[in-house]
Design goal:
binds aspartic acid; single chain; globular
Length: 405
């Protein structure tokens, strides 16, 4: 997208977000009537995810030419993701221990929310199984991206062994990828109105400003804990970006369209097309955009990890359960894994929170305490998730440069 367009579009998106918040706040439920506009935008983005991810990963990896080259970039990517997720959880745990948001909360009336019923058996082995699924069409239909990425990596690996015969197929997927990225730019122009519809509609569904404030104040300290933790982690990621790549404000500004879309949609998967386009416009090599970003969207969720740690500790505090250091370490590990397992869809983090709670024997009923404000916090953690992926692409690109670009 030409630079001038990107600047105008960003201004229009900011206006969309502000107008969405203001109108949802003032007119409340009446604004649900504009939610469909947001859903059109959301569906257009979602429509692109599967073809984009398959084409991007296959063309990105196959164009390495030799699958052994995947080792370095893959290893660096995973190391970056695990480290930053760990930092996020650590920040969350420090904040929740400092602020103690759950102390004094009345947890007596809570019941297990319908959303997590039946998920009690979710365990860590399920996260491994998430990657290898028997039916790719079904995975695609359910936007389960990890099996698609896993298959695409294997497929691309096979292509690189075929020599000239494989080249035609690689070119085919490169063509699909380029066409998809063109589509993304077209859809991007709808972002201001789409995000307006999503934000206004969601705030309207929550009953408008007054009702929303009542709900927030009930668990006010929890909201403060999560938001300040997320803000700190956002800055930490910025510093990592600055130190490793020398990039700073301009990179962040270039990512703003994707970050605001993440805020509007509460889905890092739906935001993926925008994320990839913004990272590419920021000058990161095509290879890194195609490989690092799709993987990041599925497994790198710093905001979600931070949130899960805060939420689990909040529940422990609300029920007056003292967690030992050993148990807090288990929260640390399971929050990291639960975030890896969470899908990039709205409020997925709330469901995988079950894994963390079960691991240390905390009551699942506690989730009910967080329900009313989860949609709101989800938007901020999704934004941090997407920021983590964006920084990841730039950092990996710097550490393992693509010599062809
Ligand atoms: N909504 C988040 C995302 O899409 C996941 C979550 O934390 O619920 O990244």
């Amino acid at each position: 997208m030409p630079h001038k367009h990107a600047v105008y579009l960003l201004i229009a998106i900011v206006i969309g977000v502000v107008a969405g918040i203001a109108s949802g706040w003032i007119w409340g439920p009446a604004m649900q009537s504009v939610a469909w506009i947001g859903n059109v935008f959301l569906n257009l983005l979602k429509m692109m995810i599967v073809p984009l991810i398959v084409a991007a990963v296959i063309s990105g990896i196959a164009s390495l030419g030799d699958i052994r080259k995947l080792g370095r970039i893959g290893g660096t990517t995973l190391l970056f993701y695990v480290t930053t997720t760990g930092i996020a959880v650590f920040i969350g745990m420090v904040m929740v221990n400092l602020i103690q948001p759950g102390v004094g909360i009345d947890a007596s009336a809570a019941e297990i929310p319908a959303k997590v019923i039946g998920k009690e058996d979710t365990g860590i082995s399920d996260i491994v199984l998430l990657m290898i699924q028997p039916n790719l069409i079904e995975s695609a239909a359910n936007t389960q991206l990890l099996p698609l990425i896993f298959f695409s990596i294997l497929f691309a690996a096979a292509l690189t062994t075929l020599g000239d015969a494989g080249k035609t197929v690689t070119d085919f997927f490169c063509g699909i990828n380029d066409a998809m990225m063109k589509l993304v730019v077209w859809v991007m122009y709808l972002a201001p109105i789409g995000i307006f519809g999503l934000v206004a509609g969601r705030l309207g569904k929550a009953g408008g400003g007054e009702q929303f404030m009542n709900e927030i104040t009930a668990v006010g300290l929890h909201v403060v804990t999560v938001l300040s933790g997320l803000a700190i982690h956002f800055i930490v990621l910025f510093i990592i970006l600055l130190v490793v790549t020398g990039r700073g404000r301009a990179y962040l500004t270039g990512m703003m369209r994707a970050l605001l879309t993440a805020f509007g949609t509460a889905s890092s998967a739906a935001t993926l097309p925008m994320t990839m386009e913004c990272i590419r416009e920021n000058g990161v090599s095509k290879r890194s955009v195609q490989f690092v970003t799709p993987l990041g969207v599925t497994i790198n969720m710093d905001g979600t990890a931070l949130y899960e740690a805060c939420a689990a500790m909040f529940i422990a505090q609300a029920y007056g359960i003292d967690l030992t250091i050993g148990q807090q370490i288990i929260v640390f590990i399971t929050a990291t894994l639960a975030a890896i397992g969470a899908a990039g869809i709205p409020e997925a983090g709330l469901v995988t929170l079950v894994i963390v709670l079960e691991a240390v024997g905390l009551p699942l009923e506690g989730i009910a305490l967080l329900l009313a404000v989860d949609w709101f916090l989800d938007r901020f953690r999704t934004t941090v998730n997407v920021w983590g992926d964006s920084v990841g692409a730039a950092v990996v690109d710097k550490l393992v440069p693509d010599k062809r670009e």
